[in-house]
Each structure stands twice: as structure tokens, then as C-alpha cells.
Amino acid sequence: MVEDNQIEATSSPFAIRPGEIKTFDGKDGYVSMNQIVHKMNIGHINELHMKILEIVNEFEFITSRQICQILDWKNIEYKSQDKLNNKLDQLIRSKILTRYYFSSEEGKGIYRIYCLEKMGKYLLNSRGIECKWQPTDNTKPVPMIKKRLAGNQTLLAYLRKVKAFDSYTVKPTITAKTLSKVFKATGGSAKLTKNSKSIIFLFEVVRREEDWETKLVDKMKLYQDFYANFVTGDSGFSSMPQLILVCEDDKNMAEAFKTIVTNKVEIPQIKLYYTTDLRQNSDTLANTLVEFRLDEETNKYKMDNVELKLLD
């Protein structure tokens, strides 16, 4: 598997592209549970397949590279990415998983996205593993899936590269009390612990989807409500979490900042940090966050890198 620092991309694979559509790349037809049980009995579907299934269930949408990184982190042997791809193909042929790719005016996407199929849910339930998947989940639009994939990449960067990493939550649930709304941070959350002190980073993924500025403002209003009324224990947080916007690129960070300031949806209780997809490929995450500060000389905001030793 190619290491993060060897990737020479100039734009994020999870950025929104013009005219992009999601294309089915799974298996048509019918597979019975009896066929799957037989495959398990003769060892064609084994515990490694089930570990892969559990990972896909946890993250909902995920790439094979991201699955490899999680297996590495869990110290689960899979031999090579090619061998893992063979396991994924077997799961797809049995309709335990299914697969999609993105295509746009720029051509066909270079990666595949894996998600659950009906048989996968049956197998997970048979083992007492919670699975909330339903068939309509696989109809989610491109921007929603790309937000999940970008969030996955961010969480995986933190668990692999930050010594203080403690745990992660893929879909943290947050309550905006005044607005009486429950919402989720689209990029998940990471708990960091050092010297017995912990902080939680909330990741909100921003994509240039249709009408994205309005959607960002609406989401920031929910965060405003949450932070303005925060007390210890709210939404399961023992202290006020740090919000970080994960954007497509540097320009998108500036666009998001301008949208927030123009629409007066800043959060005075915290410093709002920004980052991008490609910054997660750095060997260390200590210099991957950005803050917008007012320059007293020019009276204009400028983008400053924030160095956080906690992220070494």
C-alpha cells in the first residue's frame, strides 16, 4: 500500500467534481442465505471476511485503502491489498457487500466505495452486532458519501499519526438545545488524551456541493446553539469539544471562513480551526490546522498555520 507521504495528488479524491454521479459496481441477481452458510462451512467466507464486514458496518461508506489502514491499526493480518481486494470481491459476489464508483466529466474515479448489502446485515445480526443499515442508505447522494470518506481519512490520520490519540466516534450525536434538534458531525470525532487530560476534536466536513454555503450556514447555526448552551455532560462531552472544518482545499477554507463571517455564524466560545483533505497525508499532523486572524496593520483576515504539539 502506498504511504500517505508518497501520494502526489494536487486535489483531493474526495472533492466534488462537476457532473459527478455514483455508478453501481456490485453484483446483480439473487444469492440465498443457504449459499452463504455453505461458503462459511467450507471456509470460503472466514473470520477475516467478518472483520471486514464489521468495519464497513461501522463506517457505512469506505474505500479499500481505508479498510487496509484500519486492519493495520487493529493488527489484523490480511497479507496485501491485492489479497484484501480478493476478499472484498468474494463478499460482493455473495451480496454481503456492494460497491460503487464515481464518474464525472473528468472521467471514471480511481477508487471504489464499499457499503453493506442485505445479506451483510443478516450476518451481523446473527452475531449480535448492531447494524442500522437499510436499503435506502445506499441511495445517498455523492456529496454525502464524499463527506463520509473525507471524515474517514481524517479519523484514520489521527489514529495512525497522533501519539495522544485515544478513541474515535464515526457519527457523534450532538443536541442543539434551543433549536431542539439532534445532529451529527459529518466527519466524526477523535478523543486525544495526554497527561490524564482529554480533549475531543469534532470534524465537520465541508464540500462544494450544490448550495453548499447555505447548508454550511444552517449547520453552523446548530453548532452555535450547542456551544452557546454547553454545560459539562452535554451530548456526552465532559468538556467543550474543539470544532474543526475539513475543507476540500486551501481556497475552500477561505470560502468557508468568508461564508461564516458574512452570515454571522461564528462561535465565540471557541477558536474555529480549519484543515483540508490533503493535509492529512503529512507525516505529522502538528502543522495541519489553520486559523483565520485579523491583521491589525491591513485590517484584513489572513490564514495562519496553527502548531499544536498535542498532534505530534
* Silhouette: globular
Report the order of strands and helices. EHHHHEEHHEEEEEHEHEEE
Q: For the record, give the distance between the C-alpha atoms at the N and C termini, rounded to a whole number.
A: 23 Å
Strand content: 15-25%
Integer-rounded radius of gyration:
20 Å
Number of strands: 12
Helix content: 25-40%
Per DSSP, the total helix count is 8
* Low-confidence spans: none
Structural class: alpha+beta
Calculate the mean pLDDT score and round it.
95
Q: How many domains would you count in the coordinates?
A: 2
Largest sheet data:
5 strands, mixed
Model description:
This protein has 312 residues and is α+β, with helices and mostly antiparallel strands. The chain folds into two domains: 4-140, Arc Repressor Mutant, subunit A (Orthogonal Bundle), CATH 1.10.10; 153-311. 33% of the residues lie in helices and 24% in strands. The protein has eight helices and twelve strands. Strands 4-7-8-9-10 form a five-stranded mixed β-sheet. A three-stranded antiparallel β-sheet has the order 1-2-3. Helix 2 crosses helix 5 (118-126) and helix 3 (64-73) runs parallel beside helix 6 (142-161). The protein starts with 20 loop residues before the first strand and ends in a 6-residue tail after the last strand. The mean pLDDT is 95.
Keywords:
2 domains; 24% strand; 5-stranded mixed β-sheet; 12 strands; 8 helices; 312 residues
In brief:
The protein folds into two domains: 4-140, Winged helix-like DNA-binding domain superfamily/Winged helix DNA-binding domain (Arc Repressor Mutant, subunit A, Orthogonal Bundle), CATH 1.10.10; 153-311. With 312 residues, the protein is of the alpha+beta class.
